[in-house]
Amino acid sequence: MSILQEQSAIHSLQKLDAFLVVSVTLLITAAPLVPSEVAIVAASGTALLAVLAWYKRCRAAAPFSIFCVVCLGLALSGVRYFLIVLGAGLLSYAGVVRGVPWLRGTATWARWGSFDATVRFLSVAAWLLAAAALLSWYFLLHPNLADIIKDYVPDRPLGLLIAGGLIFSMVNAAVEEGAYRGVILHALDRSLGPGFAALVLQAIAFGTIHIRGFPCGWLGVGLACIYGLLMGLIRRRAGGMFAPWIVHVFTDIVIAGIVVFLARPNQAL
User: Fold this and answer.
1) Rounded Cα gap, residues 256 and 121, in angstroms
2) 106 part of a folded domain
3) How many helices (H) and strands (E) does the chain have?
C-alpha cells in the first residue's frame, strides 16, 4: 500500500469513527424522550453501530459505544436508579480501555486537570448561576417532587439525611461528570475535534436525561443543557475532571437542600 493509499484509508476510518460517535450520541440523546418501544429500537441501533465500531477498530467509537449499550440496556431492563446505570456503563468502559491492547491510553480525559484562578472563577460563576436557576425553578413553578422524595429520601433523622445528601452529591457528580464530560465529550472531541459541535452535542445528551430528573420537564431539559454546556467549557479550560466535578457536587448539594429542607413533608422534624 502506498503512502497516499494509507493516508486515504486512515482518513476514511476517521470519518467512520466520527459518524459512529455522532450517530450513537444522537440515539442516546433521543432515547429518554421517546416511548419505550422506540427506545428499544434506539438501543438496537446503538448495538449494531457498536459492532461496526469494534469490527473497524474505531478508537473513539468502540469504547464509547460499549458504554452506551450498557447504559441503554440497563435502563430499558428496568433499573430504576440512573446512578447505577451510569456507574455500570463507566465500569464497562474502564474495563475495555484497560483490557483491550489497541484501546489502552485512549481515556486521556481521566485526569485531575488544573484549578487555577480562571478555572476557580468560572466554577464559582457556574455554581451561582445553577443555584439561582434551581431555586427559581422550585419557588416559581412549585413542582411536584413527591416521586423524588419517595425514591431518594427515606424517613430517617435529619442528620442522616444531610450526611446522605452530601455522599450522594459527591458520588452522583463523579458518575455524571465521568459519563458526560468524560466519556461522551472525549469521544466527540476525538472524532469531531474540540469544537463547539462536540460541546453542544454532549450538553443536549445531558439535558435530555433530565426530562424526568431534577429539574424535570422540558424546562428542566433546557436548564440542564445550559449547565452541561458550562461544565463542558470548564472541563476544557481545566484540562481535567476535578473542576467540573466540584461544581457539580455543590450544585447537587443545592438540589439535596431543596428536597430535604423545602419539599420534604415534615421537614421541620
Assistant:
1) 24
2) no
3) 11, 0
Do 212 and 93 belong to one domain? no
- pLDDT tens for 93-138 read 999 999 999 999 899 999 999 999 999 999 999 999 999 999 999 9
Other Cβ atoms closer than 10 A to 118: 12
**Distance between CA atoms of residues 252 and 131, nearest Å:** 9
pLDDT for res 265? 74
Q: What is the pLDDT of residue 152?
A: 85
Residue 122 carries which side chain, given as an amino acid letter? L
CA dist 53 and 16 (Å) reads: 8
> Sign (positive/negative) of CA torsion 38, 44, 47, 51?
negative
The answer to whether the beta carbons of residues 240 and 111 sit under 8 Å apart is: yes
Question: What is the model's pLDDT at position 266?
Answer: 64
Judge whether 157 lies within some domain.
yes
Q: Both 93 and 135 in a single domain?
A: no
